C-alpha cells in the first residue's frame, strides 16, 4: 500500500489512494478514518481524498483494507496514509 498521495494534482499520477495488487482479489473494501477514529470514507475503489465532495485536510489518515479471495477467504490490512497538497 502506498503511504502518501497528492489528490489535487489530477495529472494521473498518485491522485488517488488504493491498493496496488500483485494478484487480483475477487473484491476489496477500503475504509478511511480520521485522527478522531471516525470513518470518513468507504468504498471498493480508490479514494480520491474527498469527503462529500470536499478535499480533506492535509494530515495522516488510517486505512483498513479487507481483501476477499475467490476461495471465500479474506485478509485484513491496516495502516496509515498521508494526504499531501502542493
Summarize the helices and strands and which ones pair or pack:
Blueprint: E1 4-5, E2 27-33, E3 39-43, E4 50-51, E5 54-55, E6 60-68, E7 74-83
Parallel strand pairs: 1-7
Antiparallel strand pairs: 2-3, 2-6, 4-5, 6-7
Structure explained in plain terms:
By secondary structure, the protein is mostly beta strands. It has no helices and 7 strands. It has strands at 4-5, 27-33, 39-43, 50-51, 54-55, 60-68, 74-83. A hairpin with a 5-residue loop joins strand 6 (60-68) and strand 7 (74-83). The relative contact order is 0.32.
Q: Name the average pLDDT.
A: 93
SS-derived structural category: mainly beta
Strand arrangement in the largest pleated sheet: 1-7-6-2-3
Beta-strand residue percentage = 35-45%
Q: Strand tally, please?
A: 7
Helix content: under 10%
Shape: globular
Termini separation: 21 Å
Uncertain runs are none
Radius of gyration: 13 Å
Number of helical elements:
0
Key phrases:
43% strand; 7 strands; 5-stranded mixed sheet; mainly beta; 86 residues
Give a concise summary.
This protein is mainly beta. It contains no helices and seven strands.
Amino acid at each position: 500500500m502506498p503511504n502518501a498521495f497528492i489528490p489535487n494534482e489530477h495529472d494521473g499520477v498518485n491522485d488517488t489512494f488504493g491498493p496496488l495488487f500483485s494478484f487480483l482479489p475477487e473484491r476489496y473494501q477500503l475504509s478511511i478514518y480520521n485522527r478522531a477514529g471516525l470513518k470518513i470514507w468507504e468504498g471498493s475503489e480508490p479514494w480520491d481524498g474527498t469527503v462529500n465532495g470536499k478535499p480533506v485536510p492535509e494530515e495522516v489518515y488510517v486505512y483498513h483494507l479487507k481483501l476477499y479471495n475467490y476461495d471465500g477467504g479474506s485478509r485484513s490490512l491496516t495502516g496509515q496514509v498521508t494526504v499531501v497538497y502542493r
